[in-house]
Amino acid sequence: MRGYNLTDLTPVFGASIDGLDTSQPLSTRTASELMQLLDTRGLVVIRNQQLSASGFMALAQSLGTPVVHPLNGHTHAEIPALMLHSNIIDNGKSIGYAGTERQWRMDGAQLATPWRASLAYAVEVPTQDGMPLGATSFASTRAAFDALAPGLRQQLAGLRAVHPYGTGRKRRATPYFADSGLTQIFKRGIEHPVLRAHPRTRRPSLYVSEACTSHISGLNDGDSARLLDELFLHLAQAQFTHVHHWQTGDLLLWDNCATQYRTADDYALPQRRLLYRTQLKGP
Asked: How far apart are CA 98 and CA 111, in angstroms?
């Protein structure tokens, strides 16, 4: 991006931007360059931002089309596409979604057209002894694909995986047999290629995750589970990952085809956490 300092977060993915003030309207060129950077690096970190709820959404609208999350009971009272991730209790009621994403996941995988990107902004960050808690780890699905053994890459070519909303690893409780049809819960899933091409760069990625993928179509439950477990272990390797330790004012954007994430569940009230969150329509 012209006029700003860029630093790679890891050798294989991620970038941080210094000098960009997202509280001010972005020019069309800057917004385009920011999304191009996201396409190529998969994760963008911008620290020391000052965003209100409306300012956060104005930024999102300049980058794409924000969409309402299915967990719409945890959204901002006046801004439906702004989701609140928070453990804060107000008048005996949680102000937002208090759950943590402890398993690797890809936002929007349960949709026929997955979300292009997710944005999150840190309003309050829990700490202990001055150290931030609730770190979010990101993994590059592109780098994971690039490092696949040739034989495994060939085995995965043409395979499709099912992504039902809200099931993920619960597939263990409902065995699936390819020759007996799908159970009702699996019928609600969406199939995507295991090796998915990025919608804009066309670079392939490994498109399965612990929290979102129930099984691989055409395989019996045992073979599907063994292959997925192998892929999950492969994706979680340190050389493909980056751990982000949140600070108040952090703004993060991640590409939902090239990147997956999980969050540490290491905080509890009175340690308060509040993130603004939205997602952009794909592809």
From this structure: 23
Pairing of strands 83-86, 274-280: antiparallel
Radius of gyration of the chain (CA): 19
Q: What is the pLDDT of residue 74?
A: 78
CA distances from 90 to 86, 140, 146, 219 (A): 11, 37, 47, 48
CA triple 209-63-113, angle to 5 deg: 40
pLDDT score recorded for residue 188: 61
**pLDDT at position 166:** 60
The model carries a pTM of: 0.89
Q: pLDDT tens, 175-192?
A: 443 433 434 444 467 899
DSSP string, 139-183: EEHHHHHHTS-HHHHHHHTT-EEEE-TTTGGGGGGS---GGG---
- pLDDT value, residue 172: 39
Measuring CA to CA, which residue among 141, 274, 163 is closest to residue 213?
Answer: 163
Below-70 pLDDT ranges, the chain:
71-72, 165-188
Type of residue at 267 = Y
Structure tokens at 92: 């005996």
Which of helix, strand or coil describes residue 53? helix
For residue 6, give both structure tokens: 């860029």
Long-range contacts of 124-129 (CB under 8 A, 24+ apart): 124/86, 124/88, 124/248, 124/272, 124/273, 124/274, 125/246, 125/247, 125/248, 125/250, 125/273, 126/87, 126/267, 126/271, 126/272, 126/273, 127/271, 128/267, 128/271
